[in-house]
Amino acid sequence: MAAHASGQLPAPHGQVPAATFVEELFGHLPRADQRRWALAYMQGLLSTPGKKSVRRLAATISTSPTASQSLHQFINASPWNWKPARQELLRWVEQRAQGQAWTIGLALLPKRGEHSVGVHRRFVQESGRTLNCQVGVGAFLSTGGMELPVDWRLLLPDQWRQDPQRRLRARIPDAAAHDRQVWSHILDLADSLASRTRTTLPPLVADMSECTDTAALMLGLSQRGRDFLLTVPNSLPVLSCARSAGRQPGGPGPAAPLGARQLLSLSGSGRPPHTATVSTHDGATRPVRILSGLARLPQAGPCTGSRQHIYRLFTELRPAGAQLSRMWVTNMTNRRMDELLPLTGLPTVTATTLHDLGTHFGLLDFEGRSFPGWHHHMTLLSAAYAYHRLAGSTLLPPHAQASGLRSA
Description:
Blueprint: H1 18-26, H2 32-47, H3 54-61, H4 67-77, H5 83-96, E1 101-110, E2 120-124, E3 129-142, E4 147-154, H6 158-161, H7 164-170, H8 182-196, E5 204-207, H9 214-223, E6 228-232, E7 237-240, E8 258-259, H10 260-267, E9 274-279, E10 285-296, E11 311-316, E12 327-330, H11 337-340, H12 346-360, H13 371-390
Parallel strand pairs: 1-5, 5-6
Antiparallel strand pairs: 1-3, 2-3, 3-4, 6-12, 7-8, 7-10, 9-10, 10-11, 11-12
Helix pairs in contact: 1-2, 2-3, 2-13, 3-4, 5-13, 8-9
């Protein structure tokens, strides 16, 4: 495979050449042709307009009739390990961006048919429709206005984890076939980031408002000593830690769990809301009224004792008839509200980044069926996005690079 011209994407202002960047991330690959195809795939992701199929990527970067087959082989069949590349991507990103938080995003990847690894039918509350899709769970480093994907997990429903033939065809390793829900993938990502980062761990922020297993994630993060801020369902069962809330109203028995929003409404009925100031997307500020209270999970025991986890619930209090605001929970109970409120906007930034990845970087376009192939693609698109945002690369018009890549 002979690289076009210098074999590098343009690096404005003398910044990192793409070949240097790829060598840093994929230098662990044992063969030189693998490293060249990694560069070629990233060049294609950055250069190809529209759908990022392997065929279109190959046509953008090469005139060789065998380029498409070789690129497909590299992504879907070549047994290279993607984990060292993600470790290097995390290191590279942390050297160039100051993390404000880790955020978690769910990527819904619509698919046709039943053969793409992990594909299943899933109801999407936001759209009110049931989709045939894959679900990727991504970890992003949030730098305040910019989020960079650094790690991914693929949700495998029962029909994929429990079917030996499907697992064999999709090359799903045994370690990935254990029972994994969204919350356990998030814990796995949190553990992986904690073991690999070279910086102080920032809070983890995630939108769990459509998940039924939020309590398991809260408990798991609390046991790990990880700071977090989560959007939660209004119906999340909690118990108040207010002294007056230890028993059932008018009765001797212990208090029953209430939904998070119901508990806040009851506990805040006799006191004024907290007023804070938040920044808007256009740089202005606006006052908000915050309803807040301390709570615990029902299965966690009383509110006293060294092992008890106490959480702060809060939401914006809006006029009657207005759309309900999101419900948040955090274990950072000693942080001021003006420190917590900026973090509540990060899930929106994550959603915007996922849209950008789908529109410009091929998030929705992986056509292979194998588990390793999916992770190879997600690793390379994450690398392309980081390079685009941090090394100054711009999306190039089609055929901005001369062809010349040839099959190895």
